[in-house]
Amino acid sequence: MTSLRVLPAEWAPQSAVVLTWPHPGTDWAGILDEVEPVFLEIARSVLRFEHLVISCEHVTRLQDLERELNAWAQQHGLPGRMWAVPAPANDTWARDHGPITVLADEQPTLLDFHFNAWGGKFPWEKDDALNRHLVNYGVFGATPMQSVDFVLEGGSIESDGEGTLLATSECLLTPSRNASMDRGAIEQLLSEMLGTERILWLNHGYLAGDDTDSHIDTLARFCSPDHLCYVACPDVADEHYSALAAMEEDLREFRQRDGTPYKLTALPWPDPVFGDEGERLPATYANFLIINGAVLLPVYDVPQDEEAIDIISRIFSDREIIPINCQALVKQHGSLHCVTMQIPEGVVVL
């Protein structure tokens, strides 16, 4: 008998957040002093509300982190909330190589999809094996993990927790991920693995500097089953204007199951953020992380940050909004949601 599967929404109760820590063998090597404080701020923010799982290839650094974060947690009356796991990694994008957890007949099951660095753009073999290291270390207790012969990144899908997925056709249908599968075959596999009943396909959307082929978590997000927020570019002279205006039209055409339109909230368009070589970076306020009782919001030290904080505060009025400066993260073409993966309740215990 086939199990009834559900991919929980991000706002569903969580047991933990997973981070893959940067080390000298990653592309972060030259700016570790800039990026580690961002990871530490994310880690401490998570520890206030739930468990934290950190893996790091650099064992000495991992031991130092474990002491530092456990001491901080102890000082704040939050002891015993952290797993520290030595594990090899090519990079730090836990959203995309981390496990995707479904509820199968209401019991959590970890799905270990293949990760190939967004279609073979970068080395990926260590990242693709990382979930097994976490399982073997005992992080997930007795929760089973199922390997799935399909390339899928967590940042490429958004779930409303009720059987609807939001995704971009540019990402999920790109041949460098699952070349032998067409749209119908992909929809069937996601139905079987994630319990998806329908997919809302965005056919437009673009961010300069993005390596992921338009991951949905940089463009549009579910805030509740009937509410979507999205990035909007008001500047007709900006290179993003046409693609994001077309994306907005896609969103306006989407309908809920009962036929009513979604409530839509546009997020601010930040002033351009550039890398050290003058390239435009994919700074986006859509890359927030919802955790138990809070939302961690990436900001970029630009004038639009305050407006973004205000809008997210109104959307998630029952949660604390924690802005985190992600200028360093975006230098490697990702942001806050990209380096985190939430794990639903009942999985990670200490």
Automatic annotation (TrEMBL):
Molecular function (Gene Ontology), one example: protein-arginine deiminase activity
Biological processes per GO annotation: putrescine biosynthetic process
Keywords attached to this entry: Hydrolase
Protein name, UniProt field: Agmatine deiminase
Organism field: Marinobacter antarcticus
